[in-house]
Amino acid sequence: MFDSWQEGRRVVGAALSRRNVLGAAVALVAGAAALAPAAAQDKLKVAAIFSTPIEEPWVNQVHEALLKAHEELGVEYKWAESVPSSDYARVLREFARDGYGMISGDAFAAEDITRRVAREFKDVAFVMGSGQGPAEPNFAVFDNWIHEPAYLSGMIAGKMTKSNILGSVAAMDIPEVARLVNAFCAGAKEVNPAVKCKVSFIGSFFDPPKAKEAALAQIAAGVDVIYAERFGVIEAAQEKGILAISNMSDQAALAPDTVVTGPVWDMWPTIQAAVRQVQAGVFTAQDFGTFSTMTKGGASLAPFHAFEEKLPPDVIKMVKDREAAILAGDFRVPVNESTPVSE
């Protein structure tokens, strides 16, 4: 069962080969900084806290951007992964007391805890994935606003389905997930009104075996193109010979003849902006959400790879035209965060 999943860990978590593990869950590259502009010889210390393993695609995209910040912006970077909510406060306080001038990661699993700790360390810039708003003076937020390429993916799925039954296997019923699933289905219905959409929530951000099981159930019910919002779905699609849409990163290497494309989240524009603000001493609490949109370079549609030759030319043109309209501001993908319902 786990062969493809293990391969996925290698592909999606390629950055792991670069880490130097200290303890059970922490990797370190050391240094020093604060919110005020650092002296020329100093380096900003940036830490990240993640509730899931680094292999989880949402987390991996943040991690990759922070690794890039280490390489291109000269920051020193330390991270902790698989941190349970019960341990969040301790890990965050350790980072803050150890001189980390910026702390990033996911606050979703421990929203109240993370915000409370941020209030204790007002000289530290917190830049956290969150479904809520920023909080003065030092708590900034971001999220994966990749509903635009999710919509484009849906348009492709709507044209490629033969059964007119599309599926989505997603984490849980929260706005951040719902808007992607809804955008995918809306894109499909625009080009194929006969489409019916099925959705399953696995109740976890990272449970590949459970996601695979949910995908197999949908495939048994007639789904022939499936949106792998969670890791584990692509394996099921490959085994059953149906098409899959990946999520967060370009995952074609997991199953080249299965993965057509998918929404990609690039956290670099967000991390680059936040780090530069902290380095310059001008950081403020704000919502970095727009940096994750297509026009800012934070979202895109993954390359078609092998499907460049397999997709009908009119389908590729349709998607390219709509992508251009989004980038030009001539088409706005609706944001629908209501609970997706299976049809």
Automatic annotation (TrEMBL):
Residues 46-278 form the ABC transporter substrate-binding protein PnrA-like domain. Pfam families: Bmp. InterPro entries: ABC-Purine-Binding, Peripla_BP_I, PnrA-like, TAT_signal. Keywords: Signal. GO terms for cellular component: plasma membrane. It comes from the Bacteria. This is BMP family ABC transporter substrate-binding protein. It comes from Propylenella binzhouense.
